[in-house]
Amino acid sequence: MEALTFNTTEQALLAAVGILFIIQLLYYFCLYNRIHTRSRAVKRSDVHFSQELLPLSVIIYAREEVENLRRNLTAVLEQDYPQFEVIVINDGNTDESEDYLTLQGEKYPNLYHSFVPNSSRYISRKKLAVTLGVKASKYDWLVFTEANCLPESDQWLRTMARNFTSRAQIVLGYSGYERGKGWLHKRVSFDNLFNSMRYLGYALAGKPYIGIGRNMAYRKELFYAQKGFSAHLNLQRGDDDLFINKTATAENTRVETDANAVVRVQPVNRAKDWREEKISYTVTAHFYKGMQRYLSGFETTSRLLFHVAWIAALVIGILNFHWLAAGIAFLIFALRYTMQALIINKTAKDLGEKRRYYFTLPVFDILQPMQSLRWKSHCLFRKRNNFLRK
Hints:
elongated, 390 residues, Glycosyltransferase, Glyco_trans_2-like
């Protein structure tokens, strides 16, 4: 009977593990599983799509990336879509991008391009570039991406455009990383997938709060109605996440989860580049309206506490030779891991990801909340002016 008796410490730890497990269970089934649920609904034809392919403008932001344009632009220009234009806005004009775009313009009459002068000041250069693209566009529906992004298929625009219903004003798509080798690539890919499951999951739940500018669309009239980026001109970033946070509602936002609508970003080769991107989004997150930011933070905290609690219960159980306590702690971890692996890997498959997460999953699951704390600490010690407009 002593084996069935738990001391006070074991009781407290196992109770904490159980409560945190239930919290995690709710997040995974009510939020993170929504992309997979949506994909199944689409396959059953339970989701209504527009049958009309409206004309659209693709706006591509480039930062003097002639090699990326040579690699990716043709795939955009040769999309299987009846009526569209492509507008490339180059941030700067010191490389060969302008010459390349002029040459391509002779072959593709629907290609237009301009640039942000190096002398431009007093506004975020990316926001200025996007604004120039919007003003130059002919059509109401605008699809946004970047020069380092490659559409997964020639059906990218068709698949995104099927969401251009009469009520829709915003369409959020998925952008994943091309598969690369090495630990950094695996970490970045997992982080991107998981965060996409989070923000697209909220949108599918009727609580949209951000979008990523590598793959999204919205109406030009929405941009003008909101006076563009006037609400956050003092920040370098925010052209995508803050704009969507301000304008998206359950009624005007749709999510596209089909693998044909995915764009692939080139793998990150330097940890510094990834860190700067994460820190920038951490800064703009302070300006998000709605509870989603706090709910996401609560999930991250509960996840970290779950790992602390089950490991502590396991260790104490082993040290006390109380195998039942140790076994219960490990069993709860195994149940959560199984649920997590199923949902994450099914979602990865739905989104056309080639990589799967099994042995690396527990490691990334612990590292991610620690990384989040690291990004926040970086923001505290960085100069405020680093994030203001230049």
